[in-house]
Amino acid sequence: MNRTLIAVTLALGVSPALATPADTLVYQIASAIASVEPTQAVATYDVLPVVQIYEGLYLNNFGKYEPLLATAYTQSKDGKTTTFTLRKGVKFHDGSPMTCADVEYSMRRTLVVGNETSQAAQIRANLLSISGFTPEVKKSYTFAKLASMVKCNAAGQLVLTLDRNVPSLLDSITQVYIVPMKTLVAGGDWSGTAKDFDASLGKDVSNSVLAQKPVGTGAYAFVARDPSRFVLKGFDAYWGGAPKLKNVILQKVDSDTARVLALQKGDADIAIVPDRDTLAKLKGVAGVKVYESLPTQDLTSVILFNQNIKDDKLLPAGQLAQSNIPVNFFSDVHVRRAFAALFDTKTFTRDGLQGFGLERHTTLPTNNWAEVTTLHPPTFNLKTAETEFKLAFGGKLWTTGFTVPLETYPGQGIADVVAGIFKQNIEAINPKFHAKVNTLELSAANAQLLGGKSPVSALTWGGADPDTNLRGLYSAGGILGPATGINDPKLEKMLDQARDAVGQAARKPLYKALLTYLNTQTYGFPLPQPLRFAATSASLKGYEAFNKTNLLKVLSK
Fold first, then answer.
1. Which of 236, 213, 265, 248 is nearest to 5 (CA)?
2. What is the mean pLDDT of residues 487-514?
3. Three-class SS of residue 502?
4. Which string of b and e fits 423-449 if b means at least 16 CB within 10 Å?
5. Structural domains of the chain ordered from first start
6. Is 0.90 topped by the overall pTM?
7. pLDDT tens digit string along 412-456?
8. Phi and psi at residue 21, in whole multiples of 5°?
9. Is 538 exposed, middle or buried, given 0-12, 13-18 or 19+ CB atoms closer than 10 A?
10. Residue 12 confidence (pLDDT) above 50
């Protein structure tokens, strides 16, 4: 197999007109692969090979957590202790069996090494609330504490005991990749003991032994790499069965034109296409398949209203004038409902998303397990907007009028569309209503948003767990708290109850009640979700499944 793979690799390097073999995937990407050390990798083109080579205990399959190197888990009633039953018969690419000791070491190592921008640092922040290994943190975060937190029991199960219930635990677990302990220790990595624990805290391991020669349990094993190519081969001893495509070549091709041409000529099976205009030119091309409406994962696009605008150019709270708005303009629910009814989502989809947008039910991502498909967000209706405006500020707003400032950013066409829709419909409904559109640099706009100075904000938010999404968007203590000015004790109580319940079955009805309440309050509303696009060879099968999992093992020809 190695000789065949080398021949294929050389052929691809020498003869760009040669169509890809039936057992080989050529994936042309737009950037070089830097580090494939699993605790460090966060960039898209680093994560792509990482998830083929390494595996976690669970897989996030488009919002559903499926067993991978674990077969099941149980949790204590308070949610603090989680016990994972491990899959039997799993082998690493070097032929050694995966044991509970490897899983224990891998989990502990993730909670030890990795600089502040690493994947490991993000996992530590979620599970342990550690944002960095400051001198203060090091006083209490000891090897003994880590060893009691992560350990194998007598039955060979991994037991994870945290200080609190972490609702997004499984999402973090999917990103803790299992590695062979002996290989790392022999290569000079953390020993897994107390002797070099302090020296390893937060250590940058981008050039670890795994970064040089990756060894995991995934469906594909590492073969070779150079600055423009990363080569993998199917792992015949893979516990889930050897993948159908035996060879994978990830090629860095800087030129958009060159990638598209390679796809047309049959020299690439997948090629990164820069935009929808280029994609349109590939429709109908022999040997090419175009995907225009692929779902996105764990992302939500929303409009948020700021109830406490921190801008001294605005009027004092409650004071109305046709030339301005008061700082508490959006604290009136009728104003929020009116603005939501003013927004034409069909126009937004047509002009902002080129016709490719998915209608939404709530401000949760469409693939989220807590999404409630029976709910309906505000719809575009000028009559409804008029009725709500006439109720706002005790009926005074309709007769007094207002001028609301809106923001756009250079190079952000969607922001222009959002501001344009609001301006057109605001000024059409009442001659005393006005919108003033200001253009800000994106960095300045972000600072204004987080400083609480923006009255209306259009943004994309992420996170796999509903608590991550909803707390960030609506809680006074969330990162967007200053941007929304929301101060709603009932909402905070509902957020806490839904977070603290243990298990999805217990949490889901609580989120349904919470999302229903948010619909009535209209603190924000969802935008249609942008859909992804892609182009592949017509012979490639399973790309829709790959789009949801990022696993090349689901592909075939």
1. 248
2. 96
3. coil
4. bebbeebbeebbbeeeebeeeebeebb
5. 1-32+252-294+532-557 (3.40.190), 33-226 (3.90.76.10), 299-530 (3.10.105.10)
6. no
7. 678 899 999 999 999 999 999 999 999 988 788 888 998 999 999
8. -65, 160
9. middle
10. no
